[in-house]
Structures are given as structure tokens and as C-alpha cells.
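Agenda item 2: pyridoxal-5'-phosphate complex prediction
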Amino acid sequence: MRNKEMLLIPGPTPVVDSIYDSLALETRSHTDPRFAAIYKGAIEKTRQMLKTDGEVFVIAGSGTVAMEMALVNTVASGEKILVISHGYFGDRFIQLGEAFGIEVDVLQSEWGKRVNPDDVEKKLANGKFKAVTITHADTSTGVAADLDALVPIIKKHGALVILDGVCATAAMEEDMSKTYGHPNYKIDVVLTGSQKAIGVPPGLAIVAFNKTALAAREQIERVPAYYCDIHNWIPIMNDPGKYFATPPVNLIYAYDEGMKLVLNEGMENRYKRHKAFGKAVRAALVVYGLKALAEEDAAAPTLSCILYPEGINDAAFRASLAKKGVIVAGALSHLAGKAFRIGHMGNTTEQMLEKAIVRIGETMNELGYLVDTAKAVECFKEVVYSRVV
Ligand SMILES: *Cc1c(COP(=O)(O)O)cnc(C)c1O
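Presented output:
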């Protein structure tokens, strides 16, 4: 890999050479049939990954654009949503809803914990909600949502399930053809960005709607958006040689290559690999006396939020680690300075994570917190290679 640093933040994630090579291909007209064929292939691969019976959209934008597209096309101003929030990114749906005159009710967990499904049941039984938003892996806390528990409750009450997969898609199961206890209980909308578990540079918003979600769009007379109105994009997604707004041509090349890697590895293998990555990283860090904010059974496979022990300075820790070529992220909101976040997703490898574990140990030793790197590596390897692929 020609990367000089290991970008182990919760996105963007490390980019492999074949993706860089795709990015550097000749820029062609966005209506050139040769480009249109690649765009079509990229859309098709997205459909294959998410298995929706509706439409997928791959457009220029970040994950937040994808969140906006998901919401404004399914919920009208004046209608109500329930936000299930496990942190900062869950909360983003509150502001987003309010920006469009959507009524917002929210269930927030304590950071590091999950919302109790019984509370979701109670909320939905006592109000009329058009949709419920779930953040699959909240990037601020490292908490993963339990879809098996939440989806049946939401669908039973007739609301749409909008799943934010920005830190999960391609690493955690988001199968839109899967039924959750009843033939009609399915995830209605999945949204994501290119730069996290898919492992492509930032710049693409990816959204999949099933037929139920598309029908919800038809009930909205005027969507308070232009770029994000799916009516403007459906013709393009079905015939990518058509024009609505110029797609990021080179990024589409890169995304197509990224999706080839995703599908070649296989979704089941990817789910297992990411589960093993999460478990192994956290188990190794425990050897250093570092504990994840989330309990292991609620912890995300894609990233971890790790609390510092007493006496470790966040800025010094991350700066020293960065000098060694390992980039991790600080924590958000009230956890800033008290924890760091490490991503372990996308095209990140076992070898990179093993090296990162060593560098983290060395950094702690430098900061006067003596730890056993060999033991941590042993623990990492034991967990990461024990998965059955
Ligand atoms: C990163 C992230 C977002 C925001 O995506 P941007 O690409 O930064 O706009 C939203 N939700 C989750 C869960 C994320 O991890």
C-alpha cells in the first residue's frame, strides 16, 4: 500500500493502491458511454450489496447528504419521526428533522450504552411516527444498534426504518431483503458514505430505498429539496448516461473498484472479519489497561471509543502516535480529551492493526505508563486469527 500513514480514524479509512489507480484514470465526460457503463456497474454493485427491491442512489456528497436524502424523501414537514440515538451521529437526525419542519421525538442512551427496545415500543405505541432513525454504528461512542431487536418493533407499528450505515455499510449486515420476523418487516432505507467501511475516499453519498420507502416519496407533494429529491435522480440511476447534476467521475471509478473489492471478499466474510477486528483490537488494548466505552456485547465491529486511564494526556498521546505513523481520532463532545477513537474497518488489514497495537503500547511506555506490547500483540493475534472465514 502506498499510504505513508495508517489512517485509523473512524473515516476516512485507508485507501488501497487499486483504488488510487482508479481515481487517477482519465477524466471523461459524465455522459460518455464508457463512463456511463462504469457508473451503471457501480450502482449495480451497490444494489447487490444491499439487496433492495427499490432504487439505489450514488451521488456526490458526504454521509450527511445521504442522511438528508433519506429523510426528506420519506417524511413530510409536520410528520413525526423517532430518533434512536446512541451518540453524536444519532443526534444529527434531530437537527436534520428540525431543519425541515419535521416533528422529532428522541430516545437517547447514556453514551456507551444502548437504548432499551422496551422504551422504543412504548414511544411507538403512544404516538404516530412516520419513520424511526437508527444509527447502525455510532461513530462517537462505538455503540452498535441491535437491528434484530429494533426492526420488528418499528415495523409492527407501521413506521419506516431509516438506517444510518455511514460507519457500518459493507462491514455489518444491512440486507434489505432480510425479513425480521414477518415477511413485511424489512429495513426500508439504508444510507452511507464512501469513506468509511467501504474504504473509498470521501465524496459520495449512497442511499438505498425499498419499494415501501419509494411509495412514501410519492405521498409527499413537494419535497423541500432539489438536489436531494430522488425524483431528479431516479432517471439517472436507471440510465447513468443522462444528466441531472455532474457526478464526480473519478470518484465513481474509485467507488466501482472499491465495490469490486467488497463483493469479491464477500459480505459474510466481511462481517466476520470486522467482528474479529473489533474484538481483537479491544482485547489487545485491555492488556494495556485501556477499556472501551461500550460494553463488548454492544460494541461496534468497525470502530472503538477507548477511554484513557488516569494520567494519559490526549493531545500528547495522539501526537506521539502520529509521529509513529498511526493516526487515531479524538473523542467528541463531553468525552473530548478523555478518550480516543480507533477505526478498524474497510480495507484496513490485520497487519496494520497489529502494528498499531505495538505503536500504541510504545506511546504509552513513552508517556510513563508501562505496558507489555508483546503480550498485547499475542492477544490480538489469538483473537483476530481465530475467526472461521
Ligand atoms: C461519519 C458519519 C456521518 C457523517 O458523514 P459525513 O460523511 O461526515 O457527512 C453520519 N453518520 C455516521 C454514523 C457517521 O459515522
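Discussion summary: The chain has a mean pLDDT of 97.
Owner for follow-up: CH.
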